[in-house]
Amino acid sequence: MINLGREKEKIAPFKFTDIQGKTLSSDSLKGKVIVLNFWSISCGPCIAKMPELNKLVSKMKGKDVAFIAPAVYSPREVLINNFLPKHPFDFRVVPIDIDDYSISMLPTFVIIDKNLKVVDSYSNLSNKELEQKVEQLLSDIN
Predict the structure, then answer these.
(1) Torsion sign over Cα 39, 42, 48, 50
(2) Fold category of 15-137 in CATH
(3) Average of pLDDT values for 35-47?
(4) How many CB atoms neighbour CB 16 within 10 A?
């Protein structure tokens, strides 16, 4: 089991491989705000949020923020060939097995600051609230 960490604690080191085969690690993302959006292809509320989340990614382009979408029990081939062509998602999509994390609801957002400390996790977060939290962390000097 990979520990995401408690609020205000440093996140446990992680290493993901996205659907394009590129590696993302906590070490390579230090200095960026990280937004993890745990979701699934079978989660209606997750899918409904995607268009607004895509707008947020576009709005934040060029800023020090990494948007990563661990896709729970969503095989890479299904994501690439069936799901994402119908439901484009601009986060870096990473297939995972939820047994590796302590996530109990989908979608769940985990927000991590530039120093790899977990700021908070939310299962019910509006896109506006998410944007405000990210903007606040981007403006923090620490």
Answers:
(1) positive
(2) Glutaredoxin (3.40.30)
(3) 94
(4) 17
Mean pLDDT of 39-62: 95
Percent of the chain with pLDDT over 70: 90
Angle ∠(105,111,114) on CA atoms, nearest 5: 160
Q: What are the backbone dihedrals phi and psi of residue 120, each rounded to the nearest 5 degrees, phi first?
A: -175, 170
88 upstream amide cis, omega within 30 of 0: no
Model's pTM, two decimal places?
0.90
Q: With beta carbons less than 8 A apart as the criterion, state whether 65 and 138 touch.
A: yes
Every domain of the chain and the residues it spans: 15-137
125 — alpha (psi -120 to 50), left (phi > 0) or beta? beta
pLDDT of residue 8: 66
Burial degree of 5 (CB within 10 A; 0-12, 13-18, 19+): middle
For residue 107, say if its preceding peptide bond is cis, omega within 30 degrees of 0: yes
Percent of the chain's residues with pLDDT above 90: 67
**Token code pair at residue 31:** 């200095």
